[in-house]
Write a structure and sequence with these properties.
alpha/beta; Spore Coat Polysaccharide Biosynthesis Protein SpsA, Chain A; 2 domains; 9-stranded mixed beta sheet; 11 strands
């Protein structure tokens, strides 16, 4: 049995397209986090089981869906992602035959209608993710953004068919995402510093600009994407320093 689990907050514009590709799953669990639009009605129309509530942290929200799932295999997906027929068939095949605890799923990321294959990473995009796993073998951390994962059991083969991820509609949306991510990261940093008594330095975060840019643009071959690759590397490089400046210069 495969349980498709997704978390939603006001996604009426794209939710149906995502749910339409989940027919391979034995059940669909939709976690509605403070949604005020038609997301609930859309999810119910696809036969999804609804979990409603309010969660500040991503890990708590995701575990609400995982805990509610009945299947031994969990497939995690977001509203801006699409499962192709090839990926659906591969997920069913793997779940029926694998002895492993988890499998990586490759991701094709789109900015608008433009496929950007290279350069993602450094907390600003994913080239693959642990999307198919046995219940109880993947634990999300308590961070507000990019929660750390604790994985148990044996890793299986990486799937071959990619998930389609419509990560940003345009550059303005990408910049807005950077602003949102860095604000949440700043809250995590302030909380971390209060708990540990140790904060980060300005110089360390300055150096991360260049380190993360290099990682995305050269090591992850963002240069193959031309100006798109440069832009992604730039956003990844700015993320730590913006988070640090917000944590030190702002109260919220």
């Amino acid at each position: 049995m495969i349980s498709a689990v997704m978390c939603v907050r006001n996604e009426e514009g794209q939710l149906a397209d995502c749910l339409g590709g989940l027919g391979f799953a034995d059940e669909i669990v939709v976690v509605l986090d403070r949604s005020t639009d038609r997301s609930k009605a859309i999810a119910e129309a696809f036969g999804a089981r609804i979990v409603e509530g309010a969660w500040e942290r991503e890990g708590e929200r995701r575990h609400a869906g995982i805990d509610a799932a009945k299947g031994p295999w969990i497939f995690e997906v977001d509203a801006d992602e699409r499962v192709t027929g090839d990926l659906a068939a591969e997920i069913v095949l793997i779940a029926g035959n694998s002895h492993a605890s988890r499998h990586l799923i490759p991701v094709d990321n789109f900015i608008g209608d433009h496929l950007v294959r290279y350069g993602w990473g450094a907390a600003f995009g994913k080239g693959a993710y642990v999307g198919l796993f046995r219940k109880g073998t993947k634990t999300w951390g308590s961070q507000r953004v990019h929660p750390k994962l604790v994985l148990t059991g044996q890793a299986g083969d990486r799937l071959k068919s990619p998930l389609k991820h419509y990560v940003d509609r345009n550059i303005s949306e990408m910049i807005a995402r950077l602003d949102r991510y860095s604000t949440l990261r700043a809250r995590d940093l302030r909380e971390q510093w209060k708990t540990t008594g140790v904060d980060e330095t300005f110089g360390k975060n300055i150096s991360r600009i260049f380190g993360r840019f290099y990682k995305c643009y050269w090591r992850r071959k963002g240069y193959k994407e031309g100006r798109w690759g440069f832009l992604i590397a730039l956003m990844a490089g700015l993320y730590p320093i913006l988070s640090y400046l917000k944590a030190t210069l702002e109260d919220e």
